[in-house]
Amino acid sequence: MVYRILLFISSLLATFYCLHAQELRCNISVSSQKIQTSNREMFNNMQRDMNEFMNNKRWTNNVFSYDERIECNIQITLTEQSGDQYKGSMQIRSSRPVLNTSYNTSMLNLKDDNITITYRQFEQLEFNEAGQNSDLVNLLAFYAYVIIGFDYDSYSLMGGNDCFSKAENIVAQCQSARESGWKSFEGRRNRYWLINNLQDRSYSAIREGTYKYHRLGLDVMSEDVSDGRKQVLSALESYQKANQAKQNSYIIQIFFDTKSDEVLNIFKPSFNDEKSRVYTILTGMNASSASKFAALKSSSTTAKK
């Protein structure tokens, strides 16, 4: 009888967990080979604490099942240490499944080359939306909201608004921070400009394109390849429109870093006129990509329907 009661309680807890799982399935790895220290265990603790922070916190009020969590990987490479402070870089990648397929499409692929974090062992990582957070917590929370916002934008039009607003709030709170990467004058490709681009109405066509590309494009290709490609092309035209309004944006560069290989694979089997249009759009936005997409201009494959 006692066994059955315990089994019932365990079942309830498992059900509750599945219904209320956090948004992220995030794998964070910390590389510290360039730092000379005898305390290597400290970096294992740092990696564990970061993973627990990202994966155990509820970032939104939305309900996720365990299997619906957003896949993401963060590679942190530390190169300098001064007491409890560390400097280095951070590679962020995320993906989402494509409907009715076993394929996962990349949503985000960016590198933050200028991170500064403070880590003290046994000090709990906690995030307060009102501010007064550590540099490490602000950094992780910022990218958590960006990752979730990109994912939400791919499922519903402008679905990432709330998450991007929260990321923008973190940037605003960090304007007086000593750490780099939060301010407009520190370069054109940092956290400030990332959230600025995402919130700038001049770039709204990019976020509209994210919805077209994924929900109306990739998600229908298992049933109608031709229609799916047309929607992806429409998304590229949206990116082109935004690029014409403001060129050389950080968000366009992130798109190329994340999606260029996939776009090439989508349109290789397309009609020649469609491939030519894609080539013109992509090279117009990023001239350095001309050689990569040359196959779209030169090949003459008959489109697969």
- Describe the sheet with the most strands: 4 strands, mixed
What strand order characterises the main sheet?
A: 1-2-3-4
Report the average pLDDT across residues. 90
Which H/E pattern describes the elements?
HEHEEEHHHHHHHH
Coarse structural class: alpha+beta
Oligomer: single chain
Shape: globular
Number of helices: 10
Describe it for me?
The structure is a single chain. 36% of the residues are buried. The chain has 305 residues and is an alpha+beta fold. It has a 4-stranded mixed β-sheet with strand order 1-2-3-4. It has helices at 2-19, 41-56, 135-155, 161-173, 191-199, 204-217, 225-245, 250-267, 272-285, 294-298; strands at residues 24-31, 70-82, 85-97, 104-118. Helix 3 runs antiparallel to helix 4, helix 4 packs antiparallel against helix 5 (191-199) and helix 7 packs antiparallel against helix 8. Residues 1-19 have low confidence and may be disordered.
Summarize the topology.
Elements: H1 2-19, E1 24-31, H2 41-56, E2 70-82, E3 85-97, E4 104-118, H3 135-155, H4 161-173, H5 191-199, H6 204-217, H7 225-245, H8 250-267, H9 272-285, H10 294-298
Parallel strand pairs: 1-2
Antiparallel strand pairs: 2-3, 3-4
Helix pairs in contact: 3-4, 3-6, 4-5, 6-7, 7-8, 7-9
